[in-house]
Amino acid sequence: MSRPPRGQDVLDSALQAIASATTVEQLRQAQAVVLPLQYGMSLEQTAQVIGLSKGWACRLRNQFIAGGAVGDKGKSVRGGRHREHFPPEREAELLKPFLESASIGGVLAVSQIKPQLEMALGREISVYKLLHRHNWRKLAPDKRPPQSNPVAQEDWKKTPRNTCRNPPQNMKLLPLPPYAPELNPVEHVWDELREKYFHNRVFDSFDALEDQLEVALRLFENNVPMIKSIVTFEWIVSALLNYKLNKAKEVLINSRFKILHNL
Length: 263
Fold this sequence. Notes:
- By secondary structure, the chain is an all-alpha fold.
- The protein is built from 14 helices and no strands.
- The chain folds into 3 domains: 8-65, Arc Repressor Mutant, subunit A (Orthogonal Bundle), CATH 1.10.10; 88-139, no CATH class; 180-262, no CATH class.
- α2 packs antiparallel against α3 (43-50) and α3 (43-50) packs across α4 (54-65).
- The N and C termini lie far apart (133 Å).
């Protein structure tokens, strides 16, 4: 024969808790006390009804019987800022000048904030959690891509559009499609340079890297056939020949027109 469940003295309080519960946790805790007492349910049946395990149902019952209702603000709970360095008001006061600068587009750097906080506290601290509590990421301005601003987009280009719209008469522009480095001859030169002279190399200093680059470029300069084999694309040769042919036709037509005009 199983022993009768405990908590008869708190049954009225549990019934009131069911009527006034504002959260699911409060309702489940009160039901864990009422169901065994009023309806004779076992602990397993009670746990199945409230949707918890047997251990959690027993824990909630014992907690309520001991006077510790879920959500009771009078009881101390785990967590919280029990070892805080400053109260929130003092933190906001120390961070105010930095956050104001970040809100108008400045950069919020931890290296600038940390010395002042450590000076105020008198010892070393980590400021990342402190900044996170004050929503410092939301105050940082989002960088807009150059594509959203035509003026900034022109500044980001390697070759400004203004210089390309009116090229010299002895030059012809051959526009390449965007994001197509394989069509750019110089990209093949850089690829040859990386593969033959910098592959799996570790340099002791930046000067050593510059020396190696200078040696490679001099070898490229002295090996013209190799450079031609790399950068001479068929479509480039055809475009240049067509341009020269069209230019010759234009000169011929102009000369014939002048002869006819003189006649």
